[in-house]
Amino acid sequence: METRVAVIAIIVENPDAVEQINYLLHSHSDEIIGRMGVPYRQKGVSIISIAIDAPQNTINTLAGSIGKLPGVSAKTLYSNIMVHSVPDAENNV
Fold it and tell me: Are 58 and 27 in contact (CB under 8 A)?
């Protein structure tokens, strides 16, 4: 399976969407490399940055699902490096 490294930038203007965002991110926790959240209280927004290594369609689906939430914007930046993952012999994956 081919994976890509990407960064998903998320701007949250609706605090009620945070629970849904966390649920979506948790469902991809095995693929997320790291996460940084910065509340910008003066402007009433939160900025979240997600580093992820996953198949491109998985990244697109996650970013699209997050971006469809009311009061939330998401954009993705991809690395040009594509990695062919080696199947896990123990799990036959």
Answer: no
